[in-house]
Amino acid sequence: MQEIYIQDKTFDKSSLLAKGEYENCIFNAVDLAGSDLSDFTFIDCTFSNCNLSLAKLNRTVFRDVPFNNCKMLGLRFDLCAEFGLSFSFDGCQLDHSSFYKTKIKKIVFRNSQLKETDFTESDVTGAVFDNCDLMHAVFDHTTLEKADFRTSYNYSIDLDMNRIRKAKFSISGIPGLLEKYDIDIEK
């Protein structure tokens, strides 16, 4: 079966997607929850108000793809095609998702919820976590150099187990950096 190529098209909540390559497309309020998006290609596409929770992402290509106000629970971004992997998230729910061993330098997470999201062994050098809830997010042997956590909260990052050189934190985030020492810090 030959894959399709679609360019410059807008999809809405009633749209069905066929496996193929989508370039410069807009997905608005499309429900893709539980869909198999394996081997799909999305280049310069925008997803707004979509539900992609538990979608399968085996070898899925995302290049320069912003996600805005999307529900994206339990996604395995670590299974996406690595080459050119680049996306951003604004106002998204990414709880229980995995970025295990992904290289996503300079990624931007803005106003997003990342509860119990796995960043183990990933490289998020220069990433921006702007106003994000990182409750129980996992940072284990993660490269966080030059990452910006100043406005994020509820994170716990072991300074000995991660590379954090030149990362930025606010005073209010210090308890999340010292949590393993079981000390009381008063405000």
Descriptive report:
- This protein has 187 residues and is an all-beta fold.
- The protein has one helix and eleven strands, in the order βββββββββββα.
- The protein has one helix at residues 174-178; strands spanning 4-7, 10-11, 20-23, 26-28, 41-43, 46-48, 61-63, 65-68, 87-90, 108-110, 128-130.
- It has a seven-stranded parallel sheet, with no helix packed on it. Strands 1-3-5-7 form a four-stranded parallel sheet, with no helix packed on it.
Multimeric state: single chain
CATH superfamily assignment of the largest domain? E3 ubiquitin-protein ligase SopA
Number of H- or I-type helical stretches: 1
Q: Considering DSSP H and I runs of 4 or more, what fraction of the residues is helical?
A: under 10%
Q: Care to give the gist of this entry?
A:
The chain is mainly beta.
Topology (elements, then pairings):
Layout (H helix, E strand, L loop, with lengths): L3 E4 L2 E2 L8 E4 L2 E3 L12 E3 L2 E3 L12 E3 L1 E4 L18 E4 L17 E3 L17 E3 L43 H5 L9
Parallel strand pairs: 1-3, 2-4, 3-5, 4-6, 5-7, 6-8, 8-9, 9-10, 10-11
Which properties best describe this structure?
single chain; 187 residues; mainly beta; Pectate Lyase C-like; 2 domains; 7-stranded parallel β-sheet; 4-stranded parallel β-sheet; 1 helix; 11 strands; 19% strand
